[in-house]
Amino acid sequence: MRNISIQALALALVVTGATSRGAGQTGTGETVIQKATEQFENSPLKTTSLGEGMFMFSGDGGNVTAIVDDGNTLLIDSGIDSRVTELSEAIVKATMRPVTQLVNTHWHFDHIGGNVFFGSEGVSIIAQENVKKRLLSVQDVLANYGSAHTDGDTVIYIAPANVVVVGDIFSNHFYPIIDLASGGSIDGMIHSIDQILAQSDERTKIVPGHGPVATRADLQDYRDMLAQVRQRIQALIASGKTIEEAVAAAPTKDFDNKWGGGYVFPDVFTEMAFSSLVGNGASH
pLDDT digits over 136-147, tens only? Predict the structure, then answer.
């Protein structure tokens, strides 16, 4: 049996979990949300075993991770509301255990959509503000590295299985959303990824917010893409380009074949990164 219990992990997540917010994203453009929702509604739900009683469920919104411990199952995130019954059935089939606790990496609709359903089933949804004093022995299993995708992103390390759940700090082979209205920034995303890379090795299984289970090399590739795009946009800002001129310069063009196939189009990602850097003074 894993030496980090569900109860200990759930309590630890209370400390640095995402701040509770409203139900809808803001500041990223309605067309992005519409495209994402269409993808989530129509993608097949897939179950992937992570080993040691852990499973990832993908396709119905943000990736959902289940951790089985004794007679219980802890969920990390809950997908979108319209597919939560399908998700619940897949979880029971894979784990053969009831879901007892649920935590969220952050507040976006595709990661908290099933919270109401699971709450109505008696699942305990962990609130951030509760039991910090009970966490001292297990604080090393989670981290919040500051604003990244949003201003409240939780990274969960499950050390015995060498698995890390990173939420939307990393989308595997997709350009990310940088939620500017919630304090997200491209600088913060790169900083958080650097910390995750430092805590992982070539055997680490990385559960992204979207896309298949990844390796450390995948995350490094993503980090390098972000850094190169940031550098190019910084140069455009320094030369006095407007956001429209920066988009026209296509600073992501070398990466679009690999990273541009998701619901965030290259021009939208460029706009978000540009706005983030202008807001931060185009530093670094």
Answer: 333 336 778 888
